[in-house]
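Re: folding output
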Amino acid sequence: MISDYIDSISQLRSLYAPAKERSVKKQMSELEIHCKNFIALAPLVVLSSCGSSGAMDASPRGGPPGFVKILNSHTILIPDASGNNRLDTLENIVNTGKIGLLFLVPGVDETLRVNGEARLSNRADLLALFKGDNKPLKLVIEIQVQEAYLHCAKALMRSKFWDTSLHVSRSVMPSMGEMMRSQIGGEGPAETQDEMVARYVTDL
């Protein structure tokens, strides 16, 4: 019986040429100068995690460039800023201690991928590194780097992500409040986009 699905590594590999030598060699086990510079310039990082039950999560974290602290070539810290208190990423870290990171820099089509071991810490000396950055933190995510490599520009070039002439007006979609009302219901009028932005100003 012929299958329309690829269910083995040998099948998968048969469809593609071998990875180029440069693509394999670019993976490093620590942060060197270019990785460190990329992280220092990045105002946005996406955290990918998986729980022991298989629960998946990809969560964006943002701040001014430099909001992710580099302790050394093997260790970085991400502040856990206030959010919705679902704690999906944090619970996954507690359960498995694994994390994948994707750093983005506005205007740069390349990205930086970092994979490693993660743990949560409320050590006073680590929290103090973020004093004055924002509201007081409850904890930081400490990541021991195992893999780090620059990712090619093709995806962002194809999407033309940074081309402002292609940016979609926020008015194209309903406000978050209106979408949530449609999804889960609720009492009273839905929060407008302007009301949400005004509320977030004091909650960032």
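--- second protein (sequence, then structure) ---
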Amino acid sequence: MDENLKRTPLYEEHEKAGAKLIPFAGYLMPVQYPTGIVAEHNAVRKTCGLFDVSHMGEVFVKGPQALDLVQHVTTNDASKLGVGQAQYSVICLPDGGAVDDCIVYRFEDRYMIVVNASNKDKDFEWIQRHKHEQFADCELTDNSDEYALIAIQGPKASEILARLTETDLDAIKYYHFAQGKVADREAIISRTGYTGEDGFELYIASGDAVRIWRMLLEKGAPEGIIPTGLGARDSLRLEMGYALYGNDLDDRRTPLEAGLGWVVKMDKGDFVGRAALEKLKADGIREKLVGFELKDRGFPRHGYTVRVNGEPSGEVTSGIHSPSIGKGIGMAYVPTESSKPGTEIEIMVRDKGVMAVVARPPFYKEGSVRK
């Protein structure tokens, strides 16, 4: 294996568990365990799964101009955040293209911006550039290597985690967090996730990761908790219609085209990309990211051609055969006039046209997530 690839603090736990490890975002990460992707996917939907997502990046901003900097480089309105609250947002280029999507957390004395692993160095440099230009009175630090991130997801997640913490988990609402202890170790306990199920993401010191991982698996054994890899993480998020940066969103696409207009707050004041996004909104969006379901058998994959009225009109950005609903689903950019739910499109699967219908996510509607 490539020695240049990084390893999370839980790498040896994955090896011991027999995980299939693959290069991902500069790390060696578990794509699946011997249980297999479908079994892991179903465990999260029915009971509980445990994910190592320590490859994600954590950037902290503090000081008198911390909010000003966060507001400038993200599209959502961070001024609306109360202490202990988080929000989904996008970091944009001046032309409106997405540098990354992220989650912003507000603490008493600082903000944390959680970014995608593949983008964390690029994101940090981008934010730092704007800090140097306009916001000298704040401190920006990349603390990614100090943190491990474990996601416990599924209908039984709260019940299992409660065995290892005295924090009142019921008091933590969706997209809120608390600082407490898990297995007697300091943790940021965030009711967030990427699966559509109830659960938490635990930001912990890297050195505490193995202890907490093992104890969660031990305490959750009666409920059938299992370690879960990137394969199931992808199928779970796609069933919910959650965008994946690099597939469904990138620097060539704006949040407006990607269906993320709800996190673009034009009235909050100026921010990077605002002028371009306002113009795009006024001129009209030519293409939109839509969900689709196959009407016939097939496995839609990333890169497959999409046809509208017999003409090539884009590519599948994400696609799977859904374990939960038993049919091919995916996302693709199509002309705006063809983006209405119920519109028929065609996916070229191995050079054969398979009929599909535009559908509004989530595809799976029975998730336990507490919104």
